[in-house]
Design a protein that fits this description.
The chain is mainly β. It is 6% helix and 36% strand. The protein has a domain at 1-187.
Length: 383
Amino acid sequence: MSEVRNDSAEYNLENTSRLIRTQADDGSYAPDAPEWTRGIDNPYLHGVYAPTTEEVTAEDLEVIGELPDDLFGVYMRNGPNPVFEPGEKYHPFDGDGMIYAIYFKDGKASYRNRWVQTDAFLAEKKAGKSIWPGIMGEHDYTLDGFPVKDTSNTDLLYFNDDIVTLWYNAGIPYSLDRHTLKTKGRETFNGQLKRALSAHAKIDLEKDELIYFDYWDEPPYMLYGIADKSGNVIHQENIELPGARLPHDIGFTPNYVLLHDLPFFHDMDILERTKKRIVTFHRDMPTRFGVQPRYGKGSEVKWFECEPCYILHIVNCWEEGDWVVQVGCRSTNPMPKANPEEGELSHMLAYMRLEANMYVWKFNMKTGEVVEGDLHTMNTECG
């Protein structure tokens, strides 16, 4: 077995200025944990959620048992791994993106992990401290780019021979080398991408296309597009919505894409007045799904009204004759009541305990009919 190499030194990040694994299973703190972590009462900074402090390359890992000789590929995941102490309440969406990868070849396995070097990551590395507020804090519009930290920590895609990382609130996509995980820089689709991408763009493996959308706080509020396998934007349309929304996912079939207008969004007046996104679930408003011809104009989207709900993640979409079918994880209470005993983090913890179940919607493209209902009542989510 080869030596494990620590590659974090190149960033000149002091160990005392990073969040590190601070609690063992018995609740004790790791001996090298920075003192400040011990005073932070936040479950997403401890235990299995505790960030790592190092970038590691480990070749020829010890294998318990046997790996098939013909197993060839890589398993990667993206997740939050904050470098510096947060300046305010920490939310897991605030942590700097880090890619973790296990490579398999010739009956052997190797591992490496690397931070996604976003613009915010590099700026904070230079400053030696946290600069951007988190999503639970007051937005700072004097900062370059986003008023909260765009961490690129939510999802990743294999596209155009690179790894592309994405962020929860629709952020700047970044390209990483698929072998070394070194950040190449912003993914611009050959200079044609002028806006951000949502957390869950999708790859159509049959057509070698990337299907994406973006949303923002000004009309028309949403954009939908397609890029080909070489990273060229081949189709892009503005989608008009009644106001600013917070869609998280997109579905597609061979002939359509499915867009979400959900009654779970922030009040723009409150945002302008307080610089905070106060999100409300509007139970008196229908959930709307827009079924758009895949290469059609934005004006061709057909909207279907459904029972009020919120959806983070789609499971699958397909066509059945005149019907377009969508299966997803549906929540009728995306803002559950907070437990006051959990203190100042009670609202975040309540939201993170999202209750959802597998649900199906069917849209008839000729008659406009909608059929919807539970597939199962078990609490189910993908993220």
